[in-house]
Each structure stands twice: as structure tokens, then as C-alpha cells.
Amino acid sequence: MKCPYCGHQEDRVLDSRSTKEGESIKRRRECLECGARFNTFEEIEERRLQVIKKDESREPFDRGKILRGMITACEKRPVSVEDLEQAVDEIEKHFRNQPTREVRSSDIGEMVIERLRQLDQVAFVRFASVYWQFEDVQQFREIVDRMAARKRLRRQPSSAEG
Ligand SMILES: [Zn+2]
After folding, report:
1. 112 and 61, same structural domain?
2. With 90 as the cut, is the pLDDT of residue 21 above it?
3. What is the pTM of this model?
């Protein structure tokens, strides 16, 4: 299993347990090169998540990729790797709990942005600026407002499902 921090291929397994749903095995691993600890989820084949990219092509869900993106955004920021790991755990769990096996890359991106917003403002802006490629502060503000509005909408139990 490739280390998300240094790319080394060898690690040792510290702990293994199957998830509550019994669909995957969660393993806590330690990189033999840099000593970093990280989680992996090994799925039962037919429950494998697919990511639908912008051009409609598919690729397997890769939590390491999400984590690496978040680590990059949090470079030199006071955010612990444990917090990022936990955020990725929650993001992955969210998508595993939905009935479909496919997830849009834009939905993943927005969840990452939302998480970073809670963790660190600088990391949030860094990630969002790369992700949305907004042109100015005004445009950025509009997107954030829209995102916040949509979230409020989702919380209302009476509103129709989108
Ligand atoms: Zn490593």
C-alpha cells in the first residue's frame, strides 16, 4: 500500500477491523519509511466506489488522492494529519452510505472544501481557488454564499430531495 505522505510501498498493519456494514476492512498502517500512520479501506469487489469525472469518465475511488490534496492545501498550516485523516474517513463513509456506487468528483470536491473550511481558513481558500479557479474575490464570495445557501436548504426536512 503506497504511503500517502512519502510514496513508499512498504508498511506494517497495526490494526484491522471490518466496518459496521461489513462491506470493507479498515486497516491502520504505519509506513516503514517515514513512520506516518494512515488508514486504508479494502472493499469487497462489488461494493467498489466509482468516481465520475467532469468528462464523464470513471475511475476507482481513491481516498489517498483526497488526502494528498488536503495535505497539500494544509502545508505549513496548523492542521494535524490526524484531523485530515478523520475528515477523509468521514467523507468516504458518507459516500459509502449512499445507495449508489457512483459518486461525482464535484461532490467529493465540495465535501473536501467544506471540511477544510471548518479546519483552516487559509487551507480552505487555497484548495477552493485551485478547485474552482475563480477569477476574483467577488466570484469566490458568490460561490461560498451559494454553497452555504444550498447547505441550509438541505437541512430543511420539508424541502424536496434534489
Ligand atoms: Zn511514508
Report:
1. yes
2. no
3. 0.64
